[in-house]
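Final report, Chapter 2: Outcomes

The project's central promise was a pipeline that accepts a single protein chain and returns its three-dimensional structure in a standardized token representation, suitable for archiving and comparison. That pipeline is now operational. To close this chapter, we reproduce one record exactly as it appears in the project archive, with the input sequence first and the structure output second.
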Amino acid sequence: MNDSDNSPIVPGSQASHARPVLWLITLVAVGLSLFQLYSAGIEPLGLFYQRSIHLMLIMMLAFLMFPVFGPRRPRGLIGWLLDATFFAGALVTGGYLVLYLDEIINRAGFWSQTDILVGCIATVTVLEAARRAVGLGMTVIGVIALLYAFAGPRGDLPWLGEWLPGILEHRGYSLDRLVGQLYLGQEGIFGLPMGVAATYIFIFVLFGAFLEITGAGKFFIDLAYAATGRQRGGPAKAAVIASAGMGSISGSAIANVVTTGAFTIPLMKRLGYKPHQAGGIEAAASTGGQIMPPLMGAGAFLIAEYTRMPYLDVVKVSILPAIMYFGTVYLFVHIIALKQGMQGMARSELPQMRDVMSSGWHFLLPLAVLVWLLVMNMSPMRVGYYAILTMLAVAVLRFLVWMLFVAPQQGEPVTGERLATATRNGLLKLMEGLELGARNAVAVSMACAVAGIIVGVVGLTGLGLKFSSMMLAFSGGNLLLALVMVLLASLVLGMGLPVTASYIVLIVLVGPALTAEFGVPLLIAHLVVFWYSQDSNVTPPIALAGFAGAAIAGAKPMETGFQAWKFAKGLYLIPLFMVYNPEIIMGGPWPLLIWTGLTGFLALAAFAAALEGYLFTRMAWPVRVLLLPAIVAVFYPSLMVEAAGAATMLAVIVGNWVASRRGALPA
């Protein structure tokens, strides 16, 4: 368990909860997962029914899992009273909409006092649930958004408007108007972020939970080791590949670090990587899992909804940038292995590809079904539903084959007692998967709920347009400066918000400016903001994935964070490359696409070599300095300048290879 009071409770943990609470957590979590499966694959529900029931159950789960004073302290009488009050608030929030939705719609805009009262209860309950599940930063930003809405001459807090800079001033809004927007409208708590969380995100988080409990994680890690273990720095390269595989389905960079890192970081250290290097490599690779199709954390679904593009199109255009990112991390790993003279692992220490595939090939079937159904243009929510059913069917069939055919040959005959025990264990495993999926979804759903509050306030007050004006004023119309401002804003937001919430808030604020004022295509603007929103995982002082890697590696957190920041440099360069070479996302003639892709890979390789001072052999300082303008030239929108930069980089790389061969001849 983490040190923070908001750390997730381990499923089934007896340490933090009394037994009745544990049973209640299981009951609510399993009920939530079954509700989501029902609405995804059997009977789709209306917008407000789906979102309100989902949020109600998520908040009930949050108040059960996270006691008001934190998991380290006993609840006590006051704690129980507060938790029971907020638990009732969660029930009222969802139950009121479900029971009285028709009447509420009929009096749209003319809300009763009961509507406003329940809306106030809902807003306070959402902010408190987010404080417990996500962190205080999320709640503070939500409260600031509410205060901003009240600040103005016609608002409930007119005096507060006097403190606002001129560009941020607005008319101000009353409590009734704000609550109507946030609770009773489609642009607040139950807006687009909550809609995506209650449909696509949850079903794929549940899919990831079933993959986890059935052992798919170990299969992917073994597969990566079998493929790369004998190369120089093999475990580090395996970490990159395994994190790409696991991260694309896990939905969390930190969860990815602690699952794959538990295997990869000790092996990296044993091979010769310094502890802070091993933790940094794992953090950078795990962060890349959030930009790796098909799921991209929750990003692919959100981008598809915001841009009104088919989900499959978002996935397809994201493949090349993700490969470029992992290629950069992989190259950093290889360069360090060369610099430190590392060798690969012995064949006897590695799993054999044949053995790995024979024992776990069935884990590829649900992923194949998932990709096939997406290609068939089926709804992502329905795709997730069928992928889960396939996962369960494969697990059951695999066990039946073992029990009916393999076990008898090993002297374990089939008996009624063994069948009953196996059935009971299977049902317990199913319950565990349903509970784990719901638990894993609490943080992201609560982040989306508060993000809905912020989005609602931005829409009501016109803050997005004001932000666009500010960006234009501060950058002087320079696109590069504007992108640097977006990067800095994402870093500041990332200190208090999870990645998904940071992306939603940032795209609402700066997205209009990037597209309308600077001419960046809509999809590229969303991808840039989404990529930059990942930087809080690897950028000190708040490098969350880096700190998780440091804990496993036994290294200093800040040192590990700086290493993760260095290895994840593709996170900053590749979005710039998308903006200045939009054809890699938007499409174009094949010769141009091939040229752009090749120069992009070349620039990233040159950047890694210049930063490390090594490629095939050591690089002198003048050569490293020469590479920098050549790298910048690739971003310049002129074919001649790009060609000159590419030729310079190629000449330096070839020269470095020749120098390494000359150095090797006497040896």
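Archive annotation: The longest helix spans residues 416-461.
This record, like all others produced under the grant, will remain available to the consortium after the project formally closes.
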